[in-house]
Amino acid sequence: MPLLLFKFHCYDESAFEPYILIFILCIRKKIKIMINKVVNNMEKSIFVFNTLTYTQRGREALRRRGIKTQIIRTPEKYRNDSCGYSLLVFDRVGDSKEILKAVNIPVQGVYPADFR
Q1: Cα separation of 82 and 52, whole Å?
Q2: pLDDT, tens digit, for every residue of 35-87?
Q3: Could you tell me which residues come within 8 angstroms of residue 70 by beta carbon, excluding any fewer than 6 positions away?
Q4: Alpha-carbon 7 to chain mean position
């Protein structure tokens, strides 16, 4: 895409042909949409399981599908009857729920990761 190499700090926009300006504006809008999609999908959630084995299996199932996770101690407020370990999912939380359901790994609860 050679048009992306133009310097956008040009003060004389009339030097560009109108169709090039429209193309640049469309590209800029598409880039903003792509960035918003990435930012909106970057949410952290805590998946609580009944056993450490389910936690480990869940981590592996999500890792194989490219979802970044980490096993952590379950925060006190989410510990109901869990094993004490949870899975911190960094992104694609909706996909993660579906994947775990598809591979028959029961999730006790999904909570926001607000480490404040």
Answers
A1: 9
A2: 655 544 457 899 999 999 999 999 999 999 999 999 999 998 888 888 889 99
A3: 59, 87, 88, 90
A4: 32
